[in-house]
Amino acid sequence: MNNQQAYNTWAGNYDDVENRTRDVEAYALRTLLSVLSFDTVLEIGCGTGKNTEWLATKAQQVTCLDFSEEMLQKAKEKIKAEHVHFRQADIRERWNMTHNHFDLVSTSLVLEHIEDIYNVFEQAAAVLKPGGYFYMGELHPFRQYDGRKARFDMENGVFELECFTHHASDFFSAAVMNSFDCAGFNEFFDNDDRTLMPRILAMVFKKRQVTEVPEEA
Length: 217
Fold this sequence. Notes:
alpha/beta; Rossmann fold; 28% strand; globular
């Protein structure tokens, strides 16, 4: 079973089972993005809409992508707002989006499933307006070093999804190479207990404004 099939299976009870990674990341997103203003949002990996509902209260237009048709169906059943639009897409392929269109690109618990994160940063930079923001919230690399990864219970046992470990320096390198500056960085812990291993690494990057160089006389 590949990741797409796994998320289709997981969709049935994704919202119902205890999932601290899901819940802490939702808190992280709200914490880092509540201080920003944005009208147009591209949400990558919207899943069942756990963050879409909140983003829809902040933005005038939200476009949501996910490769799991079952996850998307759950989100559509939950969110009926006319300014929220859902599309099935695989972000490992080229994004069919208008360049310089969005104020915010958001990814939540997605990049651990993407081997080439440079491609994601490159395409995020292309669709963002100058000065736009790229948010990412991921299972903390420290937990990945300890063998943790996305998994869920099935009738015949626990299924582990295919995941790739990305270090904090990998995110920063991909950001710098695609004209982003860091606008926010934080680690989030279970019950805000900072004596524990952090659960979520969350960052906000800002696309650099284009500065026109005057022509020589």
